[in-house]
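Need tokens for this chain, all 197 residues.
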Amino acid sequence: MRIGILGGTFDPPHSGHLSLGLAAIDQLELDELLFIPANRNPIKSVRSGTPAKHRIAMVEKLIKDQPKMAYSDMEITRGGPSYTVDTITEMQMVSPGEYWFIMGADALRSLPNWKSPGRLMRLCRLGVAVRPPLIVSDVLIKLPEEFKGKVDVITMPALDISSSELRTRLQKHQVTTPWITPEVHQYIESNKLYRNE
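Here are the structure tokens for all 197 residues:
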């Protein structure tokens, strides 16, 4: 099986995550794309964040109509910092297969600083989303030569929103459509999330 792994905090999950997942399934010919909410991102600065149970529930609502998408709480269950190499190692042990870790071009630049990047590259390929104004050569130029053969590019349209911007909009009761689906928005409202960030 060809399986994509899309990790992140998903705080909140939005249309950019969904469109990246759909593009990855299409362009990499994946059989399944697995959303894996992080317990704690070891790279981003620490903030309280939305409890894991809510982030998982929102991801479930985001992908509910997507037959090739699923989610896992494995990083949350494991606890501690969420390192990609640990997640892919566990996935390969439980269900050996062809794996792609799906990421944005911005994250690719920091790959050499990740935990065990060489081991990660032996365990999976990378599906890297390239959005305008970036082009593929911009993304690959700073990547170590030994990693370049393991990167598959996912071309994407420009994205005009981020999860942090959406949290701010939600806190200020500003419009979040079309970025947050009605089901996710209803869940946010029902659970009074993003009120006092």
